[in-house]
Write a structure and sequence with these properties.
Among the domains are: 2-72 and 103-170, no CATH class; 589-667, Golgi alpha-mannosidase II (Immunoglobulin-like, Sandwich), CATH 2.60.40. Helices cover 46% and strands 9% of the residues. The chain is built from 26 helices and 12 strands. Strands 6-7-12-9-10 form a 5-stranded antiparallel sheet.
Length: 668
């Protein structure tokens, strides 16, 4: 439109030409502001620079574009291979503005503020508003102030650009994300289909438009490696080459960095963050490719570091981490950080996983460390009740750390190691130790918490005062539940079914009893979460550890119709037959060599699954049976057995009819 105007408008005297140019430029900026695609918008603005008079406005535009280019063309023009200055958040997507954008900066605003009557002002307000909101989502710091100014800026931009879909989304309007309607399919099939296909849309976007050739996704290495946590249903549930390649590129890429040359980060930071580089790159590869020696060796290196550098015997004779800050070569020995916490389980995650898979190399150090936690949990000390694990153990005294015990510090933030944070990791590690060694002390540790929880429920769930026994009992639900359901998966014992059934969600109850169909509502919630605001998971995301956090961290606070969160764990459980997370005790029963967009799966027991091909024609593939090498199978569709036979090596081939609910049944 602009080109037509410039070509066809009669020539003017210099002064009147400037007037006509300004009128056209006004129309142009109104039009470009309604464009939601940042690259298109940047290109259009860049394309008219030669048409602008040489004045202060053009200078403003040039300065603005120098910053906007980083937002619009981060990977294409600003990605750099190798490491960044920070462990996380330092990637091309948001690293350039994260530490520069603060609320109420006035004349010192970033990006630099144009004149309020400038045609550029609404564009500036748009970009600054989005920077403020994503900074708050990432840092969770001064969020009210960040959100307040961010929304104010976006409202200014929306007044000028009312048709911009992104502005509408940020300000509370849900933008539909259409999905395929499957006529005559069961409800669970429809909801899973929406969830899985849209998860695939998100992941494919990140692979195609964000992943660089060295593996990073643009959020900074330490955050990029966390992304596998939400794509486990796809990565561990199906065999899909593009996903495998992307994860391998990411995991290999971070280990190519000098900071990981000794097997763990060389950046001295707290264990929550230092552990991510290794745990979140080694663990997915061990889970997906358990026979690859390079990942087994990298996991073993974690055990070596624990026994030689990170741990020492305390004054009570127990083996513990000596600090919350350590690297592959050093430990920060300052008293402020001289703590062991449940979060340290994350640093050991790769070693726990290889132990779960049958490698006993580091069993001695892992069990010795867990034994120390058992001993301290049994003590009534520093206000901590007996039978309850502390938030931290002091080194070298071995005493319950903290004043108060439930908020021990050990970090610049009081929240990082506060009770019961990361206790779920420790409960699952104890269950693993019990099933690997048969030693009762590991399950007795969990049983002590179970008895506390039962007593608290029987007494009417009293609130208690922060730090006392009733309060501690009220806080352990999630950690206890995660351990108990893994124990049930391994034993099928009903010893703790009362707690699993009363404290778990409806899918847990369905798996234990086969009777509660209310779990489908949980699946519907995930489908609903993935039916709106696609840009919030893709083009708008600036920090890769927040890919699925836009709504819970920001959007739901300002809308009358909040969206549910995505339950990736539910999808992973449905597709693999595991229950809970694969993080420490992976117990998947199936992996499907079908395209994730084509076959819907619900594993109902350890040896049975419902299958539904959404394709218009029959589809052939195979299934990996992960807990059973040989056996007999039948495939029943429309109450007719259409395929049966024996299988070996844990692999069987299947042909699924189009749009028909089938049941796969295995026998020993």
């Amino acid at each position: 439109m602009l080109i037509f105007f410039l070509c066809c408008t009669p020539s003017k005297t210099p002064d009147s030409s400037r007037v006509e140019s300004k009128i056209d430029i006004e129309q142009f900026f109104l039009s470009v502001g309604n464009e939601s695609n940042d690259q298109k918008r940047y290109d259009e603005i860049s394309g008219i620079l030669d048409e602008l008079p040489e004045d202060d406005f053009k200078e403003e535009v040039v300065d603005f574009l120098s910053i906007y280019e980083q937002w619009a063309y981060g990977r294409e023009r600003y990605w750099a291979p190798g490491d960044q200055d920070s462990a996380g958040e330092g990637g091309y997507l948001g690293g350039f503005f994260l530490m520069r954008v603060l609320p109420n900066q006035g004349e010192n605003s970033y990006p630099p503020i144009p004149n309020e009557d400038s045609l550029l002002y609404p564009l500036w307000a748009d970009i600054r508003g989005r920077m403020l909101i994503w900074s708050a989502i990432e840092n969770n710091f001064l969020t009210e102030q960040f959100f307040e100014e961010g929304r104010a800026r976006l409202l200014e931009a929306k007044e000028a650009y009312p048709n911009n879909k992104n502005l509408q989304m940020y300000l509370g309007e849900a933008i539909p994300w259409e999905s395929e309607i499957l006529e005559n399919a069961p409800d669970w099939v429809q909801h899973q289909h929406t969830s899985i296909t849209h998860l695939m849309d998100i992941l494919e976007f990140w692979i195609e438009y964000r992943q660089a050739s060295d593996g990073q996704f643009g959020g900074g290495w330490g955050d990029d490696v966390e992304m596998w946590r939400w794509w486990t249903p796809l990565f561990l549930g199906y065999i899909h080459n593009d996903i495998d390649v992307a994860q391998r590129k990411l995991s290999d890429g971070i280990f190519d960095l000098p900071r990981l040359e000794n097997g763990y980060t060389s950046i001295l930071t707290d264990v929550e963050h230092s552990s991510e580089d290794s745990a979140d790159s080694i663990s997915p590869m061990i889970l997906r490719f358990p026979s690859e020696s390079v990942w087994q060796n990298r996991a073993s290196r974690i055990g070596d570091l624990a026994s030689t550098i990170w741990m020492a015997e305390n004054n009570r004779g127990h083996l513990h981490f000596t600090s919350t800050y350590f690297t592959s070569q050093e430990v920060d020995v300052s008293q402020n950080h001289a703590c062991d916490t449940p979060y340290h389980t994350r640093a050991l995650q790769p070693a726990f996983l290889t132990w779960a898979q049958g490698d006993d190399t580091h069993q001695e150090v892992l069990t010795a460390w867990l034994d120390g936690w058992i001993a301290i949990s049994e003590r009534e000390e520093n206000g901590k009740p007996t039978g309850i694990p502390p938030a931290a153990i002091d080194f070298p005294s071995g005493e319950v750390r903290g004043n108060p015990w439930w908020n021990p510090g050990c970090h610049y933030s009081d929240r990082t190691f506060a009770f019961p944070r990361a206790l779920s990791f420790l409960t699952e590690a104890m269950v693993l130790a019990y099933h690997k060694t048969g030693e009762e002390r590991y399950i007795n540790w969990l049983d002590s918490m179970a008895q506390h929880r039962r007593a608290w429920i029987e007494e009417g769930r009293p609130n208690g005062e922060e730090g006392d026994l009733n309060w501690a009992r009220s806080q352990i639900r999630k950690a206890l539940h995660n351990g108990l359901r893994k124990h049930w998966m391994l034993t099928q014992s009903d010893e703790y079914n009362d707690l699993i059934l009363s404290e778990g969600d409806r899918y847990d109850r369905y798996r234990l009893t086969g009777e509660d169909e209310g779990w489908i509502e949980l699946l519907e919630n995930t489908a609903k979460a993935l039916s709106w605001n696609q840009a919030a998971y893709t083009t708008e995301v600036r920090f890769t550890d927040r890919v699925v956090k836009f709504h819970s961290a920001y959007w739901n606070k300002f809308t009358e119709a909040p969206l549910p969160t995505i339950d990736s764990e539910l999808l992973y459980n449905m597709i693999t037959g595991d229950l809970g997370s694969p993080g420490y005790i992976p117990l998947p029963h199936f992996r499907w060599d079908f395209h994730p967009r084509i076959v819907r799966v619900h594993v109902t027991t350890n040896q049975s699954a419902e299958l539904y091909a959404v394709s218009d024609s029959d589809v052939t593939g195979s299934v990996r049976v992960l807990q059973q090498e040989t056996g007999h199978f039948t495939l029943t569709c429309s109450e007719q057995i259409i395929q049966e036979g024996n299988f070996s090596d844990g692999v069987l081939a299947l042909t699924l009819p189009s749009q028909d609910l089938c049941t796969l049944q295995l026998e020993d």
